[in-house]
Amino acid sequence: MNRVIDQYIRSEEERAWARKADELASLFVGRATRHDQEGSFPFENFADLREAGYLKITVPQEFGGNGLSLYALVMLQERLAYGDGSTALAVGWHVGQILHLGTTRKWPEAIFADLCRSVVSDGTMINTFASEAASGSPSRGGKPETTAVPTDDGWRITGRKTFSTLSPILDRFVVSAYIPDEDCTADFLIHRTDRVTLVETWDTLGMRATGSHDVVLDGVFVDKDMRLSGNGMDDGGGWLLHIPACYMGIALAARDYALEFALSYRPNHMNEPIAALPSVQQSIGEMEIELRTARSLLYAVADRWDREKEDRPALKPELGLAKYVATNNAIKIVDLAMRIVGAASLSRNRPLERYYRDVRAGLHNPPMDNTVLHTLAKAALAETPL
Questions:
Q1: How many helices (H) does the chain have, and how many strands (E)?
Q2: 4-122: which CATH topology?
Q3: What phi, psi does 184 have (nearest 5°)?
Q4: What CATH number has the domain spanning 128-228?
């Protein structure tokens, strides 16, 4: 293997997992165009993920999962996105949050253990629905308009959540809700009932097959034990690296498409393919700088997070930086790839225009660019002068 995507494989175990991810990606790529054009949810992709055991890769070994590291998760998510960015981003929220919950143990142990066993035995998935039209992204600090009202033996949850990725396939999910009686916000584990309605609102420029519809909760009853404490260790949010890994995978696919095109396309006025042109080689070199810089940072930070367990909260600036660089560089890489291919890159018969639309979504996944810049500035200003 001398492909650049294989550069960060460190062991035979990781190589075996990489092959599994490649096999899945090869299935997804053949379905990606249809789901993108239809805006439909790729149920068959998730059946393949379940069959391959991918849904349990971050479940702790004590519950029957694989307990893979963040580094391995980044590697696998990148490869899935090489086949289909929407599927990779969607499943990334599940496997990433399982890693996060296993690291922080912020849920009551019995509830977390039950979820993990269900993931292993039944292929259950999880996501958190927190965004709302009025409050915007929860990472900005908005208070949810979804409310939780206490009853004798539990809670009644009412509200509407947006950007609810994986909503067509989940039978349980977490929502954030405001508790008026306590003037605070809490998380609740919801099991889908007839009081949960899916409103198919997801019709976007990119990442069209993530199933990120609106979810309406009409007085959904939640047992009192399903209020999640939110306590636990601070892991620095390392699990969110599944996001930049996804956009790097899309960028790699665009880069490889452009390379293949440059090596094979020969206009009739040339004696050799356009890869021989200095201008094309210049663009390829620029793609490599953006790609290799971003991946070097991404894998280095993931490795540090795995190793530096006690210092994970202090890695927040580096984790945000990795997302910032990977996402913005991915946009540049796809743009350069399209310049190499030329006007043909705009064709709906080629994947480049989908890559171009999909990578734009990374700007709106957390942490957002201005948040990263603010975090880095605060870290710099807090340094002790020499």
A1: 10, 8
A2: Butyryl-Coa Dehydrogenase, subunit A; domain 1 (1.10.540)
A3: -150, 170
A4: 2.40.110.10
For residues 229, 232, 235, 240, the Cα torsion angle rounded to the nearest 10 degrees is -20
Which tokens sit at 154?
A: 């539990």
Spatial distance between the Cα atoms of 131 and 165, rounded to a whole number of angstroms: 11
* pLDDT of the residue at 229: 80
Q: At 259, list the tokens.
A: 């390379």
Closest CA to 161 of 189, 137, 186, 133: 133
DSSP codes of every residue in 312-359: GGGGHHHHHHHHHHHHHHHHHHHHHHHHHHGGGGG-TTSTHHHHHHHH
DSSP 367: S
Residue 335 CA from chain centroid, whole number: 21
**63: its two tokens:** 């519950």
Contact assessment for residue 125 and residue 163, using Cβ atoms and an 8 Å cutoff: no
Phi and psi torsions of 197, nearest 5°: -120, 135
Encode 106-121: b = buried (16+ Cβ within 10 Å), e = exposed.
bbbeeebeebbbbbbe
Could you tell me the residue ranges of all domains in the chain?
4-122, 128-228, 238-381
**Amino acid identity at 244:** P
How many residues are given for the chain? 386
The yes or no reply on domain 238-381 and CATH 3.40.50.300 is no
Q: Judge whether residue 1 has pLDDT over 80.
A: no
In the structure encoding, which two tokens stand for residue 73, read together?
């998760």
- Per-residue pLDDT tens digits for 21-69: 999 999 999 999 999 999 999 999 999 999 999 999 999 999 999 999 9
Rounded Cα gap, residues 224 and 228, in angstroms:
9
Q: Rounded CA gap, 220 and 149, in Å? A: 10
Q: What is the largest CA-CA distance in the chain?
A: 81
Quick one: CA torsion of 257, 260, 263, 265, rounded to 10 degrees?
-70
Coil, helix or strand at residue 365: coil
